[in-house]
Amino acid sequence: MNFKTGVVLLFVISSCSSNKDLNYAINDPILISKSEKDEISLFTYNTQTIFGKEESKLNGLLNYLNREPYDFVTLQEFFSENDRNSFVKDLSNSRYISITPRVDYTSFPSLLFQDAGLFSASKYPLVDLSSFDFGENTKTNNGAIHQMLFKEFSLSLDFLSNKSVLGTLHQVDDTTKLFLFTTHLQALSSRRHKTNQLKQIKAFIENAVYVLLKNNVIANPKNLIVLLTGDFNFSAYDENDFERVHKFLGRPRDLYQEFNSEIQEYTLIKKFLGLYRRVDYIFAYDYIGKIPLRKVGVKSINVTDVVGKDNESVSDHMAIKATLFLD
Length: 327
Fold this sequence. Notes:
Shape: globular
Radius of gyration: 19 Å
CATH topology: Deoxyribonuclease I, Chain A
Structural class: alpha+beta
Strand order of the largest sheet: 1-17-18-2-3-5-4
Number of helices: 6
Number of domains: 1
CATH class: Alpha Beta
Order of helices and strands: HEEHEHEEEEEEHEHEHEEEEEEE
């Protein structure tokens, strides 16, 4: 059995879903009123860009984000330096005032495939975290924090890229701050390895919150919102997969499942393999340890397909977009 055949068979074996007819919203608008001060909107998307996107697809994503009033945007697998430069240049300056274009400034570009591919943008100002000590494994760049995740050799080439977790702190209003995290777990690695990545993410988030409280960046934890987004490469509709993610992340709320408990949508579809999964999430933490945080509720959340002018999907993933209200 050659390498490619083995990978295909592994995908087939790991999926027990049959073919499904799905009609996703395409480049759809978010459900938010600009007059609502206690609502925030969020968009998270695995862009699957290794060597760069076709111009029509890249422009399609740019136009979509510039047209929609998202408050927070997180991207994963955004590896291409040219594409990132285009986003920094062409994302609306009036809408996205804080941008973290990438986190890995050490190994990239000296090693082409050693980039973490995380990107974050927001209309809310970034709180600079560079003056605080988060420990030796946490790096600070451009005011944001990140940590590399453990790697493991796997059948897919996904192990060639670095995996990381990124944290950006934003001032939402006079009293409320939002700590936004995004990550991408390695695909087709062992469950033990991905469990270790989940534990590492949990520890990273908890430590970051404790440092903020210790340094009085947050006077009252009930004024802090903590959200975690990204591609976890665990199926949300597999009970064992979801329990593993939920448990080792510290039991945050899966906002999509909470709001859409009666339906299933998929963010990763390989029709020729019969693979239909939701591996992308928006999590909210109500507590860090026993410390209560500010809660969010869900006004709307759904999966959407982002397409370019050629009407082709920008990525092999679907995006998740949400409108949240502050309790």
